[in-house]
Structures are given as C-alpha cells and as structure tokens.
Amino acid sequence: MELKALNLSINDGVATITINRPKALNAINKDVMDELKYLFIDGGLDAHALMGVIITGSGDKAFVAGADITEFTSVTKEEGSNLSEKGHNVYNAIEAFSIPVLAAVNGFSLGGGNELAMACHIRIASENARFGQPEVNLGLIPGYAGTQRLVQLIGKGRALELLMTADMIDAPTALHYGLVTHVTSAETLMETAEKIIRKIGSKGPEAIQRTIECVNAYFDKAEDGFKKEIDLFGHMLTTDECKEGVQAFLEKRKANFRS
Ligand code: CAA
Q1: H helix intervals, 65-219
Q2: 191: which residues sit within 8 A by CB, 6+ positions away?
Q3: Could you tell me if 87 and 110 lie in one domain?
Q4: Average of pLDDT values for 135-139?
Q5: Cα distance between residue 113 and residue 115, in whole Å
Q6: Would you say 81 and 130 are in contact if contact means Cβ atoms under 8 Å apart?
Q7: Which of 14, 34, 84, 132 has the most CB atoms around it within 10 Å of its CB?
Q8: How many domains does the chain have?
Q9: Do both 192 and 215 map to the same domain?
Q10: How far, in Å, from the CA of 129 to the mean position of ligand 1?
Q11: Binning pLDDT at 50, 70 and 90, where does residue 259 land?
C-alpha cells in the first residue's frame, strides 16, 4: 500500500511513523486510519525485523488534534458505530503489537489523537504538548476507546473530569497524572524516544513480547493475567533467549539476544 497520510522511515531497526496532515493538525481521517490498519493489522510493518516503533505528528504544533471532524457530517448511527469499531480494532492492534510502540507527543494530543497515544505502550511528551478529550464540546463522546484507556491510565476521577470538562492538561500535569512517562524539550523528544526503544531493543525480544501480552491481559476481561504470567514464565525459562540471558549473567558478560 502506498502511504499518503503517513510517513514511514526505518533507521537501524527503529520504525518512525509520522502522521502527516499538518494543515489539519494531523487529524485522523479515513486515509490515516486505513494506513495505520495496513501497518499494524495487515502486515505493513514487519515486527520481526524491527525492535520498536515511534509514532509522532508532523510539524511542531500537534501530535494529532483528534479524529477529522469534517468527516462527522451526515453520518448514520450504523456508519458511526462502524467508524468507532474500526478505530478500536486498529488501536487494539497497536496495543497488542509484539514490539514496543511509543508515542512521541509533540503538541496537541486531543480526542482520537490522544486515544492513539493511549493505545501505544509508552508515551513521552515535549514541553509544549497539551492533552485532552474535547469530544463533549462537539456534543460527542470519545470513539476510539478514550473512555476506557484514560481510566486505565489516570484513574476514574481524573478521567471523568477531563472527559466531562473537555479541559486540556499541559505536559507537566500529564506527567504528574501518569499519562506520560517523560517530558523533554521539543528538540530532544525524538532522540529520547529512540533511546528508550533502543534500550528495550537490547533485551530479549520474546521476553518483551510476552511482557506486553501479560500486561495487556490485566485489562482484558476474558483473560486471567495472573495465570497467563505463570504459563508464560514457564515457557520463557525454556527458550534459547532465556538460556543466553542466564548464561551471560553467569559468565559476567552482556547478553546477545539478536545474533
Ligand atoms: N478535525 C479536522 N480539522 C481540524 C481538527 C480536527 N480534529 N483540529 C484542527 N483542525 C484544523 C482546523 O479546522 C484548522 O483548519 P483551517 O486552517 O482549514 O481552518 C487547522 O486544523 C488549524 O487549526 P486551528 O486554526 O483551529 O488552530 P488553533 O491553534 O486555533 O486551535 C485546536 C488548535 C485547539 C487544537 C483546535 O484546532 C481544535 O479545537 N481542534 C479540534 C479538537 C477536537 O475537538 N478534537 C476531537 C475531535 S472528535 C474525536 O476525536 C472523536 C473520537 O474520539 C474518535
């Protein structure tokens, strides 16, 4: 698939996806969603050939300012629910991706854009980032799982306040709430993102994949995350990856998981 709304660059195992609609503050229209689906569901990104993915926005003003509001006129209930379900499926695939996906939030992170950031495994922000779920300003509610993931990340009280007031919070507040894990200058955001991905990339790749699975299981009502961890811990002890990690420790050398 030819990418038009997204830019994809791959540098030594780290993929960077840039949402590239700066004139619309990178709002997520059908093209953006289709291209994310291609990358994360239809095999456009080869997780086995990568150590991680960074998602960011084009320009210095916005990560993503939400779903594209111009697509919200004359929509039937069924079309609206289909739009929402498609977003859920794509974002669930990002959350379940087997290598780390990090949102480098470089400005407005609003509505469906903040929901995209929340589907990523890790979020970091530049000092000018602003976060919010302003859907109620439009007489709407979040459609890409914002009512669920915001509660998971910052707790019910703070989530309900943000969802109901449509207030934006700045980067230090997002850090304080636990919505992001680091705040950097705009100039060092991507460098910091890459450093985190490369640090994770130096660990055992299957151990990282299984860690993501176990943590996601905690939030999946159909799963018993505790049981999953017990099963996967046993499995991991039998892998070549773990044999190399343990051997390296005993031999007082650095493990080499990607030879
Ligand atoms: N959809 C479509 N276009 C958008 C957009 C969006 N979500 N956000 C911004 N734009 C466009 C603006 O219309 C404007 O286009 P023009 O230059 O053609 O007029 C351009 O981007 C620049 O935006 P502004 O001039 O408004 O920039 P600003 O600095 O004055 O304000 C802002 C920035 C506060 C982010 C403001 O643009 C804004 O409030 N945007 C809408 C945010 C929003 O409501 N997001 C939620 C969308 S609904 C949703 O996401 C549902 C869901 O959960 C799936």
Answers
A1: 77-95, 111-119, 146-154, 156-165, 171-177, 189-201, 205-218
A2: none
A3: yes
A4: 97
A5: 5
A6: no
A7: 132
A8: 2
A9: no
A10: 15
A11: confident
Is residue 258 assigned to a domain?
no
Do residues 77 and 60 share a domain?
yes
Q: Is 144 part of a structural domain of the chain?
A: yes
Dist. CA 68 → ligand 1 center (Å): 8
pLDDT 10s digits, 90-119: 999 999 999 999 999 999 999 999 999 999
Same domain, 50 and 133: yes
Same-domain pairing of 194 and 92: yes
What does the alpha-carbon distance between residue 222 and residue 108 come to, in Å, rounded to a whole number?
34
Q: Is 91 in the pocket of ligand 1 (CB under 6 A)?
A: no
Per-residue pLDDT, averaged over 23-39, amounts to 98
- 100 close to ligand 1 (CB < 6 Angstrom): no
Q: 0.90 cut: is pTM over it?
A: yes
Kindly state whether residues 238 and 112 are assigned to the same domain: no
Looking up tokens 């680091």, which residue turns up? 182
Percent helix, percent strand, percent coil in the chain, to nearest 5: 50, 15, 30
Say yes or no: CB of residue 73 within 6 Å of ligand 1. no
Question: Rounded CA gap, 88 and 150, in Å?
Answer: 14
Task: Tell me, rounded to whole angstroms, the distance of Cα 51 from its chain centroid.
Answer: 15
Question: Domain of 130?
Answer: 6-201
Ramachandran region of residue 66, left (φ > 0), alpha (ψ -120 to 50) or beta? left
Percent of the chain whose predicted confidence (pLDDT) is above 70:
100
- Residue 36, token pair as written in the block: 């994310």
